[in-house]
Amino acid sequence: MKDSDYIIVGDTERFDGCLICVAGKTKEDAEELLNRMLHNPTENDKRLMDGHRNLRIKEVPAEKCGWRNV
User: Fold this and answer.
1) Could you give the strand order of the β-sheet that contains 18-24, starting from the edge strand earlier in sequence?
2) How far apart are CA 59 and CA 33, in angstroms?
3) Range with the lowest mean pLDDT among 3-7, 20-24, 66-70?
4) In terms of DSSP H, where are the helices of 1-70?
């Protein structure tokens, strides 16, 4: 089993692939979160997505998951 996290990223006018949020350890969790954000967003989702387009899931290997060190 590989150790990685999934994140939701989006693009802005100036930058591509901006981190919007950490989406979990499984692709299924990330797909569920992205689906909610796109089709039934919470108020927090709306704030996170503000100014972003082309939301998508990205897999990040454990050694690049800086948020784990906080």
Assistant:
1) 18-24, 4-11, 53-61
2) 14
3) 66-70
4) 27-39, 43-49
DSSP assigned state of 25: S
At CA 30, angle to CA 29 and CA 31, rounded to 5?
A: 90
Minimal CA–CA distance to 33: which of 65, 59, 41, 19?
41
Q: Among residues 33, 29, 39, which one has the least CA distance to residue 20?
A: 33
Has residue 1 got a pLDDT over 60? no
The whole model's pTM is what?
0.91
Tokens at 10, concatenated: 């989006």
